[in-house]
Design brief:
Elements: H1 9-21, E1 33-34, E2 62-65, E3 68-71, E4 79-85, H2 93-105, E5 110-114, H3 131-147, E6 150-154, H4 172-176, H5 197-212, E7 214-215, E8 220-221, E9 228-232, H6 244-250, H7 252-270, H8 273-280, H9 302-315, H10 321-347, E10 353-355, H11 365-377, E11 380-387, E12 397-398, E13 425-433, H12 442-453, E14 458-461, H13 490-498, E15 507-513, H14 515-518, E16 527-531, E17 536-540, E18 551-556, E19 572-573, E20 578-580, E21 586-589, E22 595-599, E23 603-608, E24 614-617, E25 620-624, E26 629-635, E27 647-653, E28 656-659, E29 662-663, E30 669-672, E31 675-680, E32 684-689, E33 696-700, E34 706-711, E35 717-721, H15 722-725, E36 729-733
Parallel strand pairs: 4-5, 4-14, 5-6, 6-9, 9-10, 11-13, 13-14, 15-18
Antiparallel strand pairs: 1-31, 2-3, 7-8, 12-30, 16-17, 19-20, 20-21, 21-22, 22-23, 23-26, 24-25, 25-32, 26-27, 27-36, 28-31, 29-30, 32-35, 33-34, 33-36
Helix pairs in contact: 2-3, 5-10, 7-8, 10-11, 12-13
């Protein structure tokens, strides 16, 4: 018998301890590699800063030209931008310099400074910013304009009242003590501002003062600064907003003011109490309300108005007169506010674009009244979000797992159903939210279908809160542009937009809205809004799926016109579940989870669930082997295409996760958030080039610099194995 050896107990214990404490690794994380964006802004293949038209403002003020944006000298423009929020516009100079360099490198030509003024108020005054804050703000704006990056102000998200405001308000205490479901709006003028002139005066005085401020670095008042592309009157607010009811309960002085205004409006319309009661009918006037007492309450809540609109449609009856009167009155009050505010801004000499607000108002009549109020103020602007999990922060919990690719026109893209035929359209806040697995679908959808086919004029991704890539995919919030499934697409998508690679569609579907007919409840078509929290999806008689075929728009008409849904069987096969664009460049297949392709002379794309299919895109063939991935092929020169470009960029992105991030089996629940570093799923793809010549294929690092490593080409085929290269970018160099 052989002698046995005894294993030292301390080592055995250590091995058992390590095994017990090591979390199980999901099989699909095998081969994933760490994201390493070690940026020093040295020479980079992906650098798009040379595509920016510097300095910003050189062409004069931004103007509205029908449904397009152009500068005063006639130069057209589209904005591919980001949001920078809260106190960050007042960052120190070194932070600003890094931020501006990153934005320019990734092709960003616009910044929406958002909800920033309350971070710079005087100690007790809400209409004046502190001088030291102005110094930082002035530097940020000057640094942006030098790079060719325009800026806009979304400076008011509920105007926070301060003690010095008390003398000018009907009831300062009521406003200062207001509580909202969202704490950041507590003590603000949100919702009530839309009918209360004293509250409006605060925002107007603040904005006038900012426009009169002289930036010593530019030598200009902001009112005279053409790099200030737009001013938004208020963020995510309107008189139909659902939270207004709770605000009015807490502010009886302002509730009485609104009732007085409505009672006066009703008396002017009906002339006497009897005619008013006869028009409204029995059981529609709460006990104790009368025109004589001036206490008739218009109940401004789009939820009420949407329910009545939908019920009337289902029951095939007219909308009740009291509901119609309330909506019409509120619409007129909204217009009065916007007209006052716009006139005050114009009086300073500012000539740029103005945005009313960016928030829709339910379904049907109230929605179109609100859209028309924004239309009269200036550019149409909207917000939307998709995916996500539990709240604004990344925490364990339920996950919305549906990809937008599974339904053309859904999610973020459906926001364009609010585009108006003779106004520019902007999506100034959007994001596909983690921990949804498929966030890499979003930037291509917005860039290719929104800014391209639908001819949107501006995009401001929400939000860029850091001047570098973040160490995890969350910040700890879920709104993070600076992550590898968002910002890494920008070098390709920004070039695609500025070069106009995607041909814009003609309008193939128009929904006609005659505003005077809304007073009688006549819309001419039916549609609904499916809304969660920040996420919205519009569909109805004109199905959102046709947005994958061509441009869809609203027309505010001079007379009432019925809306006819276009038949497009040659573009949309509902049985086989595919949609082709009217331009012939785009194809969306949603038979299963969904994917789409883009095929232009200078830009190719395969996005989504397209594994093991040969996508023949004329001079390039792409065969993706991942179940889900995005592959973009882009000519890097402004005036070249894929047949004559000396340098071509390949972008390959699939999924990303924090180290140690864990889900349940079907990814419907996040179990653990994980930590740094970020892990990237490697993309495996074959790309066949149908072009003369034998180029070099350079493997780039994660910020687009050549690594000195190359890939072979076999009979025109580039076989990319991300497990081996641990790369997301590749350069084809001729």
């Amino acid at each position: 018998m052989k002698n046995s050896q005894t294993f030292p107990f301390p080592i055995l214990f250590l091995i058992i301890f390590i095994i017990a404490c090591t979390p199980p690794k999901k099989a699909e994380y095998a081969g994933w590699f760490p994201f390493q964006p070690n940026e020093d802004f040295s020479e980079s293949v992906i650098d798009a800063s040379g595509w920016l038209d510097a300095p910003a403002g050189k062409h004069g003020f931004l103007q509205i030209n029908g449904d397009d944006l152009q500068f005063e000298d006639g130069t057209p423009v589209k904005f591919w931008g980001v949001n920078i929020s809260s106190g960050r516009p007042f960052s120190d100079q070194s932070t600003v310099d890094q931020w501006v360099n990153q934005l320019a490198k990734y092709g960003v030509n616009g910044v929406r400074f958002h909800k920033f003024t309350r971070h710079a108020f005087q100690e007790s005054e809400s209409t004046v910013l502190r001088e030291e804050k102005y110094a930082s703000f002035d530097y940020f704006n000057q640094a942006l304009r030098e790079k060719g990056i325009y800026y806009g102000w979304s400076h008011i998200y509920g105007h926070k009242v301060m003690p010095a405001d008390s003398a000018s308000l009907l009831n300062y205490r009521e406003i200062a003590s207001l509580e909202y479901p969202w704490s950041h709006l507590n003590g603000t003028t949100s919702s009530l501002i839309n009918f209360a002139p004293d509250l409006q005066d605060l925002s107007i005085r603040l904005t006038e003062g900012m426009l009169e401020h002289h930036n010593p670095l530019t030598g200009l008042r902001y009112a005279d600064d053409p790099a200030l592309a737009f001013i938004e009157l208020q963020n995510e607010d309107n008189i139909f907003w659902g939270a207004i009811g709770r605000s009015l309960e807490q502010a009886p002085t302002y509730r009485a003011l609104l009732c007085e205004q409505f009672s006066t409006w009703l008396m002017e319309k009906y002339k006497n109490e009897e005619a008013w009661k006869a028009a409204w009918g029995k059981n529609t006037i709460p006990e104790g309300e009368s025109l004589a007492k001036q206490n008739v309450f218009p109940n401004p809540n789009h939820g009420l108005f949407s329910s009545e609109y939908e019920a009337a449609f289902q029951e095939k009856r007219p909308i009740q007169r009291h509901i119609l009167d309330k909506m019409t009155f509120l619409y007129e009050k909204q217009n009065e506010f916007y007209e006052r505010f716009v006139a005050a801004i114009r009086a300073t000499g500012y000539r740029g674009v103005i945005v009313g607000s960016c928030w829709q108002a339910g379904t049907g009549i109230s929605h179109y009244y609100n859209l028309h109020a924004d239309y009269q103020a200036g550019m149409i602007d909207r917000h939307n979000y998709w995916g996500g999990g539990t709240g604004h922060r990344l925490v364990p919990g339920k996950v919305k797992t549906t990809p937008m690719l599974s339904r053309p026109g859904s999610g973020l893209l459906s926001t364009g159903m609010q585009q108006v035929i003779d106004r520019p359209f902007s999506l100034s806040e959007w994001m596909s939210l983690i921990p949804n697995q498929w966030v890499a679908e979003a930037v291509p959808i917005i860039g290719i279908y929104g800014m391209g086919l639908q001819d949107w004029d501006a995009s401001f991704h929400f939000g860029s809160d850091h001047p570098e890539f973040t160490e995890t995919i969350h910040t700890p919030g879920v709104y993070n542009v600076n992550s590898p499934t968002q910002l890494t697409f920008y070098p390709a998508i920004s070039r695609m937009i500025y070069r106009n690679d995607i041909q814009e569609s003609e309008v193939i579907s128009t929904r006609n809205v005659h505003v005077p007919s809304l007073t009688d409840g006549k819309l001419g078509f039916y549609e609904t809004v499916e809304q969660g929290y920040d996420d919205k999806y519009i569909t109805g008689d004109v199905p959102a799926e046709i947005m994958a075929a061509g441009k869809v728009a609203v027309a505010f008409t001079d007379t009432f016109k019925e809306t006819v849904h276009p038949e497009i069987p040659n573009l949309w096969n509902q049985e086989e579940k595919w949609v082709k664009s009217v331009t012939g460049q785009l194809y969306w297949n949603y038979a299963e989870e969904g994917y789409f392709t883009a095929n232009t002379p200078a830009f190719k794309a395969v996005v989504g669930f397209a594994a093991d299919q040969n996508h023949d895109l004329d001079d390039v063939q792409i065969t993706v082997k991942n179940p889900f991935a995005t592959v973009l092929v882009t000519a890097l020169e402004k005036d070249r295409n894929l047949q004559n470009s000396q340098s071509i960029l390949i972008t390959t992105i699939a999924r990303a996760a924090n180290t140690g991030m864990r889900y349940n089996e079907d990814y419907s629940e996040l179990l653990e958030v994980g930590e740094a570093p970020i892990l990237l799923e490697p993309v495996l793809v074959d790309i066949t080039l149908k072009r003369e010549g034998t180029p070099t294929v350079n493997i780039l690092d994660h910020v687009g610099r050549r690594t000195g490593k190359t890939l072979p080409i076999d009979n025109g085929v580039i076989s990319i194995n991300g497990v081996e290269t641990q790369a997301i970018y590749y350069e084809i160099e001729y």
